[in-house]
């Protein structure tokens, strides 16, 4: 399909849901959506560390405090600056002690006029579903992904690798912190899916494609959550589905 004309105001159908899963007593994930400003986000507090839910909530608050931005570049830089400030504050809380480490992954989608930018750190993901196909825009910051990239193990082996949950980059974990990014042009009919690894630990890309390409944002988010729960739900699960539509914008957030 054709890109949206630059002057058009994009319309979005959004649904977002977060769930503690079947095992963990606390939900350390946070989500944020604002179609009017073109901001969507999933953050996953680092499991096993103190106050992971605080770290992810600080990231969501950063998105909440952003202005509209005169351009995508301005919005992106404001987000980067805000996440950098969160990283500095979380590092100060830990005071250099690994035992006191507090951190979070993040996957954010920013859209302004006809352009998008996906920013991330860690293994929360951003997907683009377009014309019957799915592309993972983000690239996991994990030990197992580095092994796959180097050809040491295959993707099939990565699925059961014993250290597959080891994160190599997260907000609050390192001094020299940078968000990675991918950008492009928004097209009518596009669907973006943001999620924490609580979803992708149980649901593969083809299953995300099958639901997000044929269902409403609300139905897709619910079916993906239910599928992850039915397969164990071993971690907190968060899903944000953003459909680019020609009709009025709607947002449905479920917690």
Largest sheet: 6 strands, mixed
Tell me the distance between the termini. 34 Å
SSE run: EEEHHEEEEHHEEHHHEE
Please, how many helices? 7
Radius of gyration: 17 Å
Multimeric state of these chains?
single chain
List keywords for this structure.
about 260 residues, 7 helices, globular, 5-stranded antiparallel β-sheet, about 30% strand, 6-stranded mixed β-sheet
Please provide a written account of the structure.
This protein has 255 residues and is of the alpha+beta class. Helices cover 29% and strands 29% of the residues. The chain has helices at 52-64, 72-94, 143-149, 155-158, 197-200, 205-212, 217-230, and strands at residues 11-19, 29-34, 39-45, 104-112, 115-121, 125-130, 133-136, 180-185, 191-195, 237-245, 250-254. Strands 7-6-9-10-1-11 form a six-stranded mixed β-sheet. A five-stranded antiparallel β-sheet has the order 2-3-4-5-8, with helices on one face. A hairpin with a 2-residue loop joins strand 4 (104-112) and strand 5 (115-121). Helix 1 runs antiparallel to helix 2 (72-94). The longest helix has 23 residues, at 72-94. The mean pLDDT is 90.
């Amino acid at each position: 399909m054709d890109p949206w004309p630059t002057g058009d105001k994009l319309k979005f159908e959004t649904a977002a849901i977060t769930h503690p899963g079947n095992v963990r007593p606390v939900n350390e994930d946070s989500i944020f959506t604002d179609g009017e400003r073109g901001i969507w986000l999933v953050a996953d507090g680092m499991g096993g560390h103190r106050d992971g839910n605080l770290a992810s909530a600080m990231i969501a608050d950063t998105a909440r405090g952003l202005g509209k931005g005169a351009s995508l570049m301005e919005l992106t830089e404001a987000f980067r600056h805000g996440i950098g400030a969160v990283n500095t504050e979380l590092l100060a809380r830990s005071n250099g002690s690994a035992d006191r480490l507090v951190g979070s992954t993040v996957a954010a989608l920013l859209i302004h006029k006809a352009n998008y930018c996906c920013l991330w750190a860690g293994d929360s993901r951003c997907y683009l579903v377009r014309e019957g196909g799915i592309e993972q825009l983000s690239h996991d910051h994990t030990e197992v992904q580095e092994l796959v990239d180097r050809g040491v193990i295959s993707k099939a082996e990565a699925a059961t690798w014993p250290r597959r949950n080891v994160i190599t980059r997260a907000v609050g974990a390192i001094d020299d912190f940078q968000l990675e990014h991918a950008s492009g042009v928004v097209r009518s009919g596009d669907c973006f899916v943001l999620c924490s690894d609580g979803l992708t630990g149980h649901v593969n890309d083809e299953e995300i494609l099958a639901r997000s390409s044929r269902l409403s944002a609300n139905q897709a988010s619910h079916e993906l959550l239910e599928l992850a729960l039915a397969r164990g739900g071993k971690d907190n699960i968060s899903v944000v589905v953003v459909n680019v539509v020609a009709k009025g914008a709607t947002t449905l957030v479920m917690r």
